[in-house]
């Protein structure tokens, strides 16, 4: 058990399971490494818009969480452990119907305080692209 995180990856491993929003979405961390994180959101009927289609707001929340995880992945910890998504965009490619999705976040660039990240939302089974997003995350 990690008592105090030493890296951003360890911080995410501790933070994500305790976040009320992440828990509400049912998101779990699959893998996290230098500049890359993979998470999974199992299908839940509470997150649909019509029929069995996953709500766009749930997908946007996944992009936001993917940006955060990618920004922290492998990063050195700042003096104060805090951060926020400062900008985000998302393109919806095709709907997810009654299926789990994977959230693949990649840090494209890390500056002193700002990281630019990309997130692909893919169907868990066949990696079909559901949505793609990007954003900037501020650490510290």
Question: How would you characterize the overall build of this protein?
Answer:
Belongs to the thioesterase PaaI family. Pfam families: 4HBT (PF03061). The structure is a single chain. With 140 residues, the chain is of the alpha+beta class. It has a single domain (8-139), classed as Thiol Ester Dehydrase, Chain A (Roll). Helix content is 22%, strand content 41%. It is built from 3 helices and 8 strands. It has helices at residues 8-15, 20-25, 56-72; strands at residues 28-33, 36-41, 48-50, 53-54, 83-92, 101-110, 114-123, 129-139. The strands form 2 sheets. Strands 1-2-6-7-8-5 form a 6-stranded antiparallel sheet. The protein has a two-stranded antiparallel sheet with strand order 3-4. The relative contact order is 0.21.
């Amino acid at each position: 058990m990690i008592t105090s995180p030493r890296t951003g990856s360890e911080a995410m491993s501790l933070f994500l399971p305790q976040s009320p929003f992440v828990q509400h979405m049912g998101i779990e961390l699959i893998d996290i490494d230098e500049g890359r994180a993979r998470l999974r959101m199992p299908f839940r009927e509470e997150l649909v818009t019509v029929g069995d289609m996953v709500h766009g707001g749930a997908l946007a929340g996944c992009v936001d969480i993917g940006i955060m995880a990618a920004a922290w992945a492998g990063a050195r910890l700042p003096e104060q452990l805090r951060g926020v998504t400062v900008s985000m965009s998302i393109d919806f490619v095709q709907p997810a119907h009654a299926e789990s999705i994977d959230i693949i976040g990649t840090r494209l660039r890390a500056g002193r305080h700002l990281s630019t990240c990309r997130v692909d939302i893919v169907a868990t089974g066949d990696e079909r692209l559901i949505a793609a997003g990007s954003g900037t995350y501020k650490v510290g």
